[in-house]
Hints:
42% of the residues lie in helices and 12% in strands. By secondary structure, the chain is of the alpha/beta class. The strands form 3 sheets. Strands 5-11-10-14-12-13 form a 6-stranded mixed sheet. A 4-stranded mixed sheet has the order 2-1-3-4, covered by helices on one side.
Amino acid sequence: xxxxxxxxxxxxxxxxxxxxxxxxxxxxxxxxxxxxxxxxxxxxxxxxxxxxxxxxxxxxxxxxxxxxxxxxxxxxxxxxxxxxxxxxxxxxxxxxxxxxxxxxxxxxxxxxxxxxxxxxxxxxxxxxxxxxxxxxxxxxxxxxxxxxxxxxxxxxxxxxxxxxxxxxxxxxxxxxxxxxxxxxxxxxxxxxxxxxxxxxxxxxxxxxxxxxxxxxxxxxxxxxxxxxxxxxxxxxxxxxxxxxxxxxxxxxxxxxxxxxxxxxxxxxxxxxxxxxxxxxxxxxxxxxxxxxxxxxxxxxxxxxxxxxxxxxxxxxxxxxxxxxxxxxxxxxxxxxxxxxxxxxxxxxxxxxxxxxxxxxxxxxxxxxxxxxxxxxxxxxxxxxxxxxxxxxxxxxxxxxxxxxxxxxxxxxxxxxxxxxxxxxxxxxxxxxxxxxxxxxxxxxxxxxxxxxxxxxxxxxxxxxxxxxxxxxxxxxxxxxxxxxxxxxxxxxxxxxxxxxxxxxxxxxxxxxxxxxxxxxxxxxxxxxxxxxxxxxxxxxxxxxxxxxxxxxxxxxxxxxxxxxxxxxxxxxxxxxxxxxxxxxxxxxxxxxxxxxxxxxxxxxxxxxxxxxxxxxxxxxx
Length: 621
């Protein structure tokens, strides 16, 4: 393996980089983990550090810098000893995060996005941190702090000024609650570690049970889990080392979603058991968990759970004494990129690349991780598969509806008395969820996140099910005091920040949509702009490369149709008004130069005409 010498890094930095490279064998596929671990040790990724990592992995320097620049949680400039990122999700804003952030910045003498002069601290925003049930939330050096108040802001400012290490901060600051409000078949499954593995029959019989159960993907797409596993099982690996893989998609970046966080915190063994069942069926020996960067605090507990399973012979060679049943799991961290929730972008990231969605076909079941057959499933899907392995297909199929079997976990947040996790059999009505969580005077529910469906009161009898309202789990509630235009504008800004930039329709279209929403918000909007918004949404939906762009306009479209008065209240012109006022932009300089004086205009013009400056033939003298 190349070493990390002669690259401009200090001796201490070189030692850190070398140790990380050795730990990962200099494997370019593990670039994401190398970058993260080096940054955690050194604070940031300097040019010399990137050069050393490129040398150590045998990758082009530009490739390493390109990956480091793609993800929000990697930074190639120093951002202070303390990097504070406030969650900018709409539910955090509803709880007062903007005012609390302003208070923190004022006390630290900082502007958002800037680093303090002593290089001690920076304060900025990030997208949803997955703590919507206990906001306002923030990340300090990527560790979550929940339930922020003015008092807690002042305490954190004091800790930062006194340069107290994070490990010495009050433990209650970092407490993250599960907030499980309603349990059903999955959360009340009562399985002990190993139960699903002991219940396994042959791989084909297990596959038949998953297919017969009607289990569908819980990430939102709803594809048949049994069919996916069958396609993967039947696919032939390629190259010198053919293999099959199982990947757990734990990158729940959709605003308002946090149910995977709770499953990994409370039911990690169930998830790992489901991955092992999948590995058994598809013939995989390796499983990978892609854990979103905001859940970095879960990495050590999850690794400890994996070690316990290895010690109990529930992972590794000849699991439970079955010769040939070999399967192990490894956790890979993301670094803050919503687009990596899309399965092919996730696979690119797992391979140490920028998270740009792939063209399909081929699909991951035939050409996934490292080009090999790969089954990519959501956290909740895999946990459900473990339950089916024990309870059976008929038992599971009897829960829910004819087309949506089993239960669904909902991440409920916003204007309600009891935010948290609610598990229901498929088919539950929206109004039932609202009643159970203590919602009052509800104006709208945003279901399935920023890219999902905005439901008005006339639709509250609709059901959560694949045949009616499908969802990955996000359920945000807005009462009658909320401005639905502001909600949609927040989501429009979110998609600009999270677009990978690969395709022009999404890269440009999300920006145009944000600009149109900002123009209306600033009082320059008219009917022309509303029509322009519809044109942008149509282009996004029909021309974008992946689901992010195709659904980026959903909330704006829904709110325009169902809550149009919130837009019309801001329309100040009948047709069109430029968002940029050139005369206003130049007024300050005219004032400085004295050109706002009518007499000054005459004298300046007169001097120019006498000297010939600025005149052409035919110009009036």
